[in-house]
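sry for the spam today, last one i promise. C-alpha cells for design, 467 residues
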C-alpha cells in the first residue's frame, strides 16, 4: 500500500506545482493580439499639414513608433496628436508600429498624396480645369497698374493650374523665391545649375511676364553653398570665383531676365549701419571679408560688364522703418553712381508699422536720385502679438491690413513714371509665407487665403489703383 500512497501523493504534488508555475506566466501573456490603428485629418488652417492621432486601444502597456514617410527617421514614444507638414508634392506612407509588453508587434499604414494645393482629401487630388484664355477686359491687378505687379514664385507652384491662373491674371513680373540664389545656381565649385531658374523664366516668357532676378550676392547661410562658406583658396581666388559666378549667371539669362538684385542685405542693423563684415555685425558677410570694403562696387561692375542692358538693383530691408539704415543705403547707392539702376526696398512690414510718412520718405529719397524704385517682397504681418493659436484674421485686423496694402500701393502709384519699376508681393497664399517659419506663429500676410480666395488686402491693393 505504501508505494501506491506515495505515487498518489507525488501525482498530487506535481499537478499542484505545475498549475502554480503556469498560472503567473499565463497572466503575463496579453489575452488579445495588439492591433495598430490611427486616424488623420487635414489641418483646417494649413492644407499642407496633417494631424495624425494614434487610436490603438489595448489593455496592457505598449509603445508606438511613427514613421511619417519624410525620410527623417522614425520617432518612438511620442503621445497625443502629431502635427506633420508635407511641403513637397508627392506620395508618402505613414507607418505606425505598436509593440506590446510581450514583444508582439503590429503595424498600420496609410498613404498621403500631396499636390501643389496641399494634401489631397481621401488621396483624390482635384483636377483643376485649364486656365480660361485671358480676355482684354480683364481687371487683374496688373491691368489696373501702370507699373509691373510682381509675385514671388517657386518652380513647383508653377505646375499648379489654379496658382498659374492667378499669376497670369494678376501679375506680370516674377521673382524666384529661392531658386535663383547662389546655393541653387552654383552648387559646387565646378558646376552651375540653372534648371529651376530656366523653368521660371520660360513660364514668364510664355505668359508675357518679366522676371526680376533675385539675388546674386547674399551673405545669408541659406543662400550660399557650403563650399563657398568653407572657401579654402586665397582672397584673390575668391574674388575671381565671384566674378566668374556673376558673369556666367548674367550671360546665361541675358535677354530673358529684365533686372537683377546684384547685392542683397549688405548693410548691418548694428549701430552706424556699416557693411556687414564679421559676426559682430549681426550676420557676417563672407563677401565683405574676402573681397574688402569695396566688394559691392566690384560685384556691380562685374554685372555691368557681363550684361550692359540688364537693370541692376541693390536690395535691402527696413529701409522705411530705420532712418539710419536708409541713410546708409543711400550712401552706398550714391557711391555706386552709374553702376546702379534702382533700389529694391523690401516691404516686410506690419499692419501698423512703419508709418505712411516713413514709407513716403523712402520713396522720395529714391526718386530724388533719379533711380528706379522696386517695392520688393511686400507682405503685411497681422500677428504682431505673436499669438500661437491664431487661426485667422479678425474683421478689424483684416481691415487694418487692407488699409496698409492700400497705403503702400498709393504711395508707389504716386511716384513719377520715370521711377516706376515694380511692386512685388512675397507669396500668393497666406499658407505659403516664409513668416510663419520665421516668427514661429501663424501669420496671414498676403493677398489670397489658403484656398485661393482673395482677401480684403487684395481689395485694398486694387482700390488704390482704381479708387
Ligand atoms: O535647398 C532646398 C532645395 O534643394 C529644395 O528643392 C527645396 C524644396 O522646398 O528646399 C530647399 O530649401 C529652401 C531654401 O530656401 C534653399 O535655399 C527652402 O525650402 C526655402 O524655404 C528657403 O527659404 C527661402 C529663403 O529666402 C532662403 O533662400 C524663403 O523661401 C524665401 O522667402 C526667403 O526670401 C528672403 C529673400 O530672398 C530676401 N529677403 C528676406 C526673405 C525672407 O528670408
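last one done:
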Amino acid at each position: 500500500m505504501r508505494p501506491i500512497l506515495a505515487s498518489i501523493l507525488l501525482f498530487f504534488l506535481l499537478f499542484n506545482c505545475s498549475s502554480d508555475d503556469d498560472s503567473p506566466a499565463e497572466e503575463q501573456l496579453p489575452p488579445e493580439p495588439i492591433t495598430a490603428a490611427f486616424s488623420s485629418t487635414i489641418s483646417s488652417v494649413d492644407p499642407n499639414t496633417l494631424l495624425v492621432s494614434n487610436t490603438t486601444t489595448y489593455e496592457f502597456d505598449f509603445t508606438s513608433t511613427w514613421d511619417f514617410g519624410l525620410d527623417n527617421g522614425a520617432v518612438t514614444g511620442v503621445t497625443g496628436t502629431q502635427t506633420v507638414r508635407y511641403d513637397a508634392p508627392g506620395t508618402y506612407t505613414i507607418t505606425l508600429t505598436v509593440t506590446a509588453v510581450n514583444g508582439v508587434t503590429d503595424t498600420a499604414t496609410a498613404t498621403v498624396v500631396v499636390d501643389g494645393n496641399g494634401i489631397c482629401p481621401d488621396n483624390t487630388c482635384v483636377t483643376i480645369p485649364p486656365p480660361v484664355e485671358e480676355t482684354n477686359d480683364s481687371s487683374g491687378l496688373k491691368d489696373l497698374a501702370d507699373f509691373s505687379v510682381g509675385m514671388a514664385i517657386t518652380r513647383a507652384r508653377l505646375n499648379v493650374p489654379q496658382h498659374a491662373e492667378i499669376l497670369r491674371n494678376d501679375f506680370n513680373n516674377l521673382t524666384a523665391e529661392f531658386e535663383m540664389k547662389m546655393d541653387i545656381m552654383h552648387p559646387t565649385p565646378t558646376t552651375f545649375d540653372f534648371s529651376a531658374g530656366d523653368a521660371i523664366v520660360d513660364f514668364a516668357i510664355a505668359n508675357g511676364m518679366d522676371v526680376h532676378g533675385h539675388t546674386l550676392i547674399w551673405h545669408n547661410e541659406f543662400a550660399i553653398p557650403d563650399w563657398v562658406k568653407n572657401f579654402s583658396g586665397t582672397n584673390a581666388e575668391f574674388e575671381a570665383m565671384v566674378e566668374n559666378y556673376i558673369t556666367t549667371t548674367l550671360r546665361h539669362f541675358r535677354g530673358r531676365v529684365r533686372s537683377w538684385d546684384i547685392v542683397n542685405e549688405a548693410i548691418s542693423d548694428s549701430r552706424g549701419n556699416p557693411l556687414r563684415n564679421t559676426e559682430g555685425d549681426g550676420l557676417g558677410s563672407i563677401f565683405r571679408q574676402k573681397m574688402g570694403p569695396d566688394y559691392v562696387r566690384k560685384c556691380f561692375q562685374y554685372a555691368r560688364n557681363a550684361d550692359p542692358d540688364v537693370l541692376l538693383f541693390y536690395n535691402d530691408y527696413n529701409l522705411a522703418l530705420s532712418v539710419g539704415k536708409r541713410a546708409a543705403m543711400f550712401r552706398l547707392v550714391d557711391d555706386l553712381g552709374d553702376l546702379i539702376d534702382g533700389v529694391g526696398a523690401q516691404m516686410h512690414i506690419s499692419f501698423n508699422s512703419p508709418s505712411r510718412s516713413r514709407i513716403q520718405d523712402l520713396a522720395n529719397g529714391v526718386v530724388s536720385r533719379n533711380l528706379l524704385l522696386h517695392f520688393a517682397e511686400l507682405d503685411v504681418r497681422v500677428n504682431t502679438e505673436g499669438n500661437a493659436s491664431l487661426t485667422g484674421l479678425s474683421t478689424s485686423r483684416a481691415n487694418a491690413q487692407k488699409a496698409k496694402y492700400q497705403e503702400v500701393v498709393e504711395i508707389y502709384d504716386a511716384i513719377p513714371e520715370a521711377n516706376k519699376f515694380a511692386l512685388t508681393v512675397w507669396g500668393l497664399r497666406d499658407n505659403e509665407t516664409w513668416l510663419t517659419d520665421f516668427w514661429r506663429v501663424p501669420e496671414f500676410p498676403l493677398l489670397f487665403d489658403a484656398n485661393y480666395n482673395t482677401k480684403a488686402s487684395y481689395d485694398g491693393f486694387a482700390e488704390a489703383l482704381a479708387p
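The CA atoms of residues 45 and 391 lie 6 Å apart. ok im logging off now
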